Amino acid sequence: MNPTTGHAAAAVPPGSARPAAPPAPTGLAVVGAGYWGPNLVRNAQATPALRLEWLCDLDEERARAVLGGYTTVRVTGSFEAVLNDPAVGAVAVATPAATHFDLVRAALEAGKHVLVEKPLTPSSGEAAKLVALAERSGLVLMCDHTYCYTPAVRKIRELVRGGEIGEVQFVDSVRINLGLVQPDVDVLWDLAPHDLSILDFVLPPDARPVAVSAHGSDPIDAGRSCVAYLSIWLSTGALAHAHVNWLSPTKIRTTVIGGSRRTIVWDDLNPSQRVSVHDRGVDLAYAGSLGREERREALISYRVGDVLVPALPEQEALRGVMAEFAAAIAAGRPALTDGRAGLRVVRLLEAATRSAAAGGARETVDIGENE
Amino acid sequence: MNPTTGHAAAAVPPGSARPAAPPAPTGLAVVGAGYWGPNLVRNAQATPALRLEWLCDLDEERARAVLGGYTTVRVTGSFEAVLNDPAVGAVAVATPAATHFDLVRAALEAGKHVLVEKPLTPSSGEAAKLVALAERSGLVLMCDHTYCYTPAVRKIRELVRGGEIGEVQFVDSVRINLGLVQPDVDVLWDLAPHDLSILDFVLPPDARPVAVSAHGSDPIDAGRSCVAYLSIWLSTGALAHAHVNWLSPTKIRTTVIGGSRRTIVWDDLNPSQRVSVHDRGVDLAYAGSLGREERREALISYRVGDVLVPALPEQEALRGVMAEFAAAIAAGRPALTDGRAGLRVVRLLEAATRSAAAGGARETVDIGENE
Amino acid sequence: MNPTTGHAAAAVPPGSARPAAPPAPTGLAVVGAGYWGPNLVRNAQATPALRLEWLCDLDEERARAVLGGYTTVRVTGSFEAVLNDPAVGAVAVATPAATHFDLVRAALEAGKHVLVEKPLTPSSGEAAKLVALAERSGLVLMCDHTYCYTPAVRKIRELVRGGEIGEVQFVDSVRINLGLVQPDVDVLWDLAPHDLSILDFVLPPDARPVAVSAHGSDPIDAGRSCVAYLSIWLSTGALAHAHVNWLSPTKIRTTVIGGSRRTIVWDDLNPSQRVSVHDRGVDLAYAGSLGREERREALISYRVGDVLVPALPEQEALRGVMAEFAAAIAAGRPALTDGRAGLRVVRLLEAATRSAAAGGARETVDIGENE
Amino acid sequence: MNPTTGHAAAAVPPGSARPAAPPAPTGLAVVGAGYWGPNLVRNAQATPALRLEWLCDLDEERARAVLGGYTTVRVTGSFEAVLNDPAVGAVAVATPAATHFDLVRAALEAGKHVLVEKPLTPSSGEAAKLVALAERSGLVLMCDHTYCYTPAVRKIRELVRGGEIGEVQFVDSVRINLGLVQPDVDVLWDLAPHDLSILDFVLPPDARPVAVSAHGSDPIDAGRSCVAYLSIWLSTGALAHAHVNWLSPTKIRTTVIGGSRRTIVWDDLNPSQRVSVHDRGVDLAYAGSLGREERREALISYRVGDVLVPALPEQEALRGVMAEFAAAIAAGRPALTDGRAGLRVVRLLEAATRSAAAGGARETVDIGENE
Fold first, then answer.
1. b/e map of A225-236 (b: 16 or more CB within 10 Å)?
2. How far is C323 from chain D (nearest CA, A)?
3. Chain D within 8 Å of A270 (Cβ-Cβ)?
4. Which residues of chain A does C308 touch, with a Cβ-Cβ cutoff of 8 Å?
5. Contact status of C43 with chain D (Cβ, < 8 Å)
6. With the CA atoms of D276, D279, D280 and D283 taken in that order, what torsion angle do they form, in degrees rounded to the nearest 10?
């Protein structure tokens, strides 16, 4: 961690004998008062380890409207002013993706920790530069992969990585709704980062995406795909798939993770039963001592077992994002969803774009190490 | 219609002056007492225009068990005996797909009308021969595309073809469940015929499938795909997609047909609301007088409208299949889901198999004329 | 068991040395070819321990239509002929309730075992006479409390009586639908027998109904209640409640059984999750060593725990009814839902009718011993 | 309207010629920083026609925590200080019910408009005094019957009062959940005010509650009913019913309003389909020209028709409450859910309490005029 950045952790002198006093909160500026910014503002204010100093937007009027008429938080249209404020130790960037590279680089060069919306950048080359810059500077670069901080996804990660479901056999994710056609990105870049970042978060490190195939469709002639299907082959041979769609009148957000022992169903729109663990599956009868060819002839039988619905706390994901950002800063450690995770997601999105342009051809991808 | 086949319609002499007397029912033999045969037996018995004469299965014991202990229907293990019985005017074939070609050909050559389970045959070349043979012989060759005879799919056809939803923009179909891993076919050939035959049935004639791309996965090492994704490009440019899966612990049977004016959601597992018509969609604001490039810049806005759930009768689909089979025989006309429809489905399945073998490459397909 | 009745068990001579031969099936006549009769006919035919001999209805045409054109079962309009047939050892009565007493009495007097639709009779005095007659004659008198033979209710009985949920604290049952307004009975007598017989079946013997209060309403001026609410006080102090309704456009069949440790939710219309066991409840914190008054002041806290959905077989309830009827006959023992259970239900219905007539006044009821 | 109260409307001089300038917002103090207070604080801040001046709570620390660390709103523990502040024109009371009478009376006597949580007071005598006091003083006394300001209930009111569903035949409401056992009120007083205020709001003025019957149960020995059933007879003869329950592990909030032409189903937990209008019902066939007795014999038939799901905006109800409070103040008119509505609800709750104490006896109630 760079001792010159003035972030909160550094403010506590080494060897300090006052363990009871909490560290001073890290001063934060939120940049971007559009769709997502207000959520960052609200959750930052509710996080004791952060101190919201600024809301920055070129449109100061919009920023003022987001804050409302009862606030002590300051508004500015100048990103430079934010970076020059020594009270600011960290910046949360919620601007259009095309602006991420310049803003994040400037913030890192100014010694600020950075939380950035997905996707990290529209290009993996730029994303890699930001990752390297942050690591060189000893600064936290965190991607706001929000879903990874929901109680549901945390639980799923625990179940998958803990071996509860056995080997992952398939993953199927559907994220469809009547959505806003984005002016700058297609539906893959808009919605699939959720699915890809969740996959990155919950799969074991040895199940890495190695190739993708994507098909997109623009039936309303919007100039970019509004419906897309993405197949992702994992290094284990399993197939993951995501369906993202801006045009569906019914809203579905469901992910099924099939394992050799159990299957997880995550229905994010069912508050009373978001995650269920199904003790059902397919067995190859008498398959224990059989060779491969023999197994294929063996009779397949079915276990139908109990379903367990684990109790989950109700908790806003973004609160967890803010807490993790502050904790990573305080501990001088990478965030759970760090820049490298963001870079892996961008590499997959780029490969998907290449595949879609080539009519769905399988595109090999080297995302680097998982974690 | 071949006057020598002895089917019911031909039994009424031309010019007959007895309009009140219903025609004698067509004598029927069901061949195959396995998974689906019992349903054919039950529904044939409930169809006044048919007279069930035989249940034929190599395993006569199984056939007797299917009929139960209170029946007057005869059992035989000899398909030849069935074909030689002049009381039999029609045959319903519910045996494994690999046997369809020989059985159907023999039946047609014996002058019997044929109802056959999906897929028509495992090869389009054989399927085409059967279609030609039936047409030459003036016999009804009908495919049991069961879903097309549900009140839901009939309603959807009416809505789509009647112009209610505007132009079809996308189709997404999910048919997943914990299923029996078939010994002879993969999940595409087992389940996708449902989706493909429904598409064939409901889409307007000018929206023909022109290419497919498929990915399959066999995560349980069963020797054939158990999870598959199938993309289908239509001649209109729209994209249809089907997800079929034998390994899902949750059962889903949902098809969404997005149109330029309305969107249909068919949830076959929701008896109180199988079909809903959503008056929602995406508009390009001010797009009326704009050129193509301009439209892409135009602001996209959203209509959120009412949803209508049309009342549908509860009616077993197979009852409708039997009624249509008998009616086609009586009228000497092709069945709604005739051999040509079955051939189109087989051509798509073959193309999907080629695509999956080629890693998902786009395969052009010429299915011939729709209808 | 009356050795003169000619039923199946008696047909095996005592001391017979042929244990491998199954007993000859009991000859059965179904009486009544109306709404429910066809279901009895179908399930009797599928029960090896029964041999369906007759379908008896005053309207022989209707009976013939129920059997269809492929049957070996005989039709008769004469109940006397049925009773005089020595091949008939048992009778299943599915006629209007008002005819039950005469038909069941005649059958018992003729030495036939009897299965009878709910309610046993419209009057508890008559019901008691039938119970006494059957017991005197050593004949099985069984009530077709169909739901008790569903896998769901069997499981619930096991959970409740096995102590899994702790003490029963409340029961709430909703059984509403767009229903046929019955010509002869109100909605309480039509639908509440289901709820009351299920309660009778699943509650432990020491939790007996001791009083009821009922309100009915006839908003369509049909001449009898079409909407009714029934409160039932148990001997343990707990309150059970049933809402029955013929006028609801949405169909609901849900019963919640709240226990001191767990709560059971039975949603009969959710095939993938009919029964769920909720490890949630209300605790009185620190209440262990407190007296009654102190407990009321103690802080109440909440456990939110996991939910378990036990796997249940799919099995038609009426198949289980038939099997139980045959087994009780064979073993010469009372059926699980015997005449006494039917009598208890009728006593509760009578009390409910009195209460509704008295504006909902609490009516004490002595149903006799549970079991 | 009392010209001395200094509220916003009075601040605009009569005959003012500046119609474009919006009136100055009314200064508001929220009293009570417990469970509901934070929601009032948040929504008041988002309402342009209000100006939040104070959050008042005896526990100033709690009040400060509610406001958070970035606010300009002041905290006080002194209700007197609030009443003495001339900048305060209105007070929103969210304290325990037992304190409502004293707080509301003092506020009205100080010339402040009042918004008060349900129930208005625990006694109808006190409630009537507050109503009279407010009317004498020309001040707005509004009850926070929150649900009445949801888009769903507004739509239902429009449908019911507009004649869309015909005559109201029955109402059934279920409001159950795992809830906090309240220290001061039973489940009827805690939850049934929602159902009663909604009934009051949506039913036509000529369908007035005239009698109630209630049963409560305290199975966890909490010292007050945790499960309760409430029957309400309307002046039209129709029966309404509410089930309220703190002990249910499944959360249900559903109200069915059956009409002679259509039936409304409101499922508040189904965001994609909160309100559906069912064109189904029960007809008396050939009943047109028949007398009463004849109608009872007439054949009853069933219409199964379409279901319409009207599009509803997503909008926080409390935002609507605040807007209505401000609008009533500005216009010098009673609020939609005024003190009289609150008084009617309290009269019904008192009658329900009397009935439950008398074992469910029917209690006649005179709630005064609806509206």
1. bbbbbbbbbbeb
2. 35
3. no
4. 306-309
5. no
6. 140
- Residue D215 has its nearest CB partner, among C226, C239, C245, at C239
Residue type, C105: R
User: Which among A108, A112, A136 is positioned nearest to A121, based on CA atoms?
Assistant: A108
Would an 8 Å CB–CB cutoff place D221 in contact with chain C?
yes
pTM: 0.89
Max CA-CA distance within chain D?
Answer: 73
The answer to whether the CB atoms of A306 and C310 lie below 8 A apart is yes
The end-to-end CA distance of chain B, in Å, is: 19
Comparing B280-289, C121-130, C186-195, the range with the smallest average pLDDT is: B280-289
Q: Assess B245–A contact: CB distance below 8 Å, yes or no.
A: yes
Which fold does the domain C148-314+347-364 belong to in CATH?
Dihydrodipicolinate Reductase; domain 2 (3.30.360)
Q: Is A16 on the interface with D (CB under 8 A)?
A: no
CB contact under 8 A, A70 and D45: yes
Domain positions in chain D are 8-139, 148-316+347-364
Q: Which amino acid is at B200?
A: D
Nearest Cα to Cα of residue A241 among A172, A169, A170: A172
pLDDT digits (tens, 9 = 90+) for B175-221: 998 877 777 889 999 999 999 999 999 999 999 999 999 999 998 88
User: Quick one: B366 exposed, middle or buried, by C-beta within 10 A (0-12, 13-18, 19+)?
Assistant: exposed
| Cβ-based contacts of A308 with chain C (< 8 Å) | 306-309
CA gap A139, A5 in Å, rounded: 8
CB pairs < 8 Å spanning A and C: 30
Q: Which residues of A touch B300 (CB under 8 A)?
A: 180-181, 220, 222
Please give the CATH superfamily to which domain B8-139 belongs: NAD(P)-binding Rossmann-like Domain (3.40.50.720)
Q: Does B270 touch chain D (CB under 8 A)?
A: no
From first to last of its 371 residues, chain A has per-residue pLDDT tens of 333 333 333 333 444 455 556 679 999 999 999 989 999 999 999 999 999 999 999 999 999 999 999 999 999 999 999 999 999 999 999 999 999 999 999 999 999 999 999 999 999 999 999 999 999 999 999 999 999 999 999 999 999 999 999 999 999 999 998 877 777 889 999 999 999 999 999 999 999 999 999 999 998 888 899 999 999 999 999 999 999 999 888 889 999 999 988 999 999 999 889 999 998 645 554 444 444 444 444 445 455 689 999 999 888 999 999 999 999 999 999 999 999 999 999 999 999 999 999 989 899 998 876 55
CB contact under 8 A, A239 and B221: no
Q: How many angstroms away from the CA of A7 is the closest CA of chain C?
A: 39
Residue C305 contacts A where some CB pair is shorter than 8 Å: yes
Touching check for B251 and chain C: CB below 8 Å?
yes
Q: Which CATH superfamily is domain D148-316+347-364 in?
A: Dihydrodipicolinate Reductase; domain 2 (3.30.360.10)
- Per-residue tokens: C351: 């009390």
Q: Which CATH superfamily is domain A148-315+347-364 in?
A: Dihydrodipicolinate Reductase; domain 2 (3.30.360.10)
Asked if the Cβ–Cβ distance from B229 to A227 is below 8 Å, we say: no
Q: Domain B148-317+347-364, what fold? A: Dihydrodipicolinate Reductase; domain 2 (3.30.360)
DSSP three-state, residue D200: helix
The percent helix, strand, coil of chain B (3-state, each to 5) is 35, 25, 40
Cβ count near D327 (within 10 Å): 15
Contact call for B273 and D311, based on CB within 8 A? no
Closest approach of chain A CAs to the CA of C260, in angstroms? 19
The pair of structure tokens assigned to C33 is 């070819």
Nearest to C70 among B71, B251, B272 (CB): B71
Strands D239-245 and D227-234: antiparallel
